[in-house]
Amino acid sequence: MRIIGLAGWSGSGKTTLLAKVIPRLVARGLEVSTLKHAHHAFDVDQPGKDSHTHRMAGATEVLVGSAKRWALVHELRGQAEPALRALLEKLSPVDLVLVEGYKREPHPKLEVYRASVGKPLMHPDDPAIVAIASDAPLPAARVPVVDIDNIDRVADILMRHAAPIAAVLAHAESR
Fold first, then answer.
1. Band (100; pLDDT cuts 50, 70, 90)
2. How many C-beta neighbours within 10 Å does residue 169 have?
3. Which residues span the domain enclosing 88?
4. Is 2 exposed, middle or buried (0-12, 13-18, 19+ CB in 10 A)?
5. The whole model's pTM is what?
């Protein structure tokens, strides 16, 4: 498995870019998984559903399975947020894991930048940023810059710079 992330300020278009690039990567024959960091409480099941009722009753984990998919919800119940490494270890093996968020982690990242967001570039302060997908030219950038709408070039960068997951995890442990 190889890993690369998309990092950027809120509103920069990380999720939109992922929704466009994942089909291109899959069309190239890759199995792709994603791991998304949420900065807030989130819910994947709904009130009124049995799985939600089980969780609200105190179950630590609720696994729902069907002929089409399965989902596991793990309630932390006051425990610390799991590290990226622990979450990566829960994924089934695939060719490429795309991580949205976790911008402070040391895995290679493509910065998603939109000038209209009004935030500074992250790449000068993050040596793990390997390139920038931007809606504007960035002549002062010290890493390659690709047009955010050139999905094939974005896919090329993601594939070229994705790192073996074992190397990323080893680097994270040495910090």
1. very high
2. 18
3. 2-41+80-173
4. buried
5. 0.89
Please state, in angstroms and rounded to a whole number, the distance separating the CA atoms of residues 92 and 146: 30
Could you write out the DSSP letters of every residue in 27-83? HTT--EEEEE--SS---SS-TTSHHHHHHHTT-SEEEEE-SS-EEEEE--TTPPPPP
Tens of pLDDT, residue by residue over 63-83, are: 898 899 888 888 888 889 888
Mean per-residue pLDDT, 103-117: 94
Q: Is residue 37 part of a domain?
A: yes
**Does 66 map to a domain?**
no
> Which own/partner contact pairs does 70-77 have at CB distance under 8 Å and 24+ positions apart?
71/44, 71/45, 73/44, 73/45
Element (H, E) at 84: helix 84-88
Give the mean pLDDT of 102-129.
Answer: 94
151, part of any domain: yes
Does residue 127 form part of some domain?
yes
CATH label of the domain that carries residue 15: 3.40.50.300
